[in-house]
Design goal:
The protein is an all-alpha fold. 74% of the residues lie in helices and 0% in strands.
Length: 73
């Protein structure tokens, strides 16, 4: 099933959900779209500098540690 068909099917299902579930879905969709807003190059560079500082201070997980953590999920 292609994306357009899946979207249509999803929209059809929305008509039968209760208000609580609809509100939750609405919150998720709104949050996801907010996360894709562009940030300025200054903010981007600031976040990179902050991340590099965290690494320099030893605040990171190795790949093996990250795998072990993820395997416990």
């Amino acid at each position: 099933m292609d994306l357009e068909a899946r979207k249509y099917e999803f929209i059809q299902k929305l008509f039968s959900v209760n208000e609580t579930l609809f509100t939750k879905l609405e919150t998720i969709i709104n949050k996801e779209t907010e996360e894709f807003e562009r940030i300025s190059i200054e903010q981007y560079n600031k976040e990179i500098d902050e991340a590099n500082e965290e690494i320099d201070n030893g605040n990171f997980y190795t790949q093996e540690e990250a795998r072990n953590i993820a395997s416990q999920w």
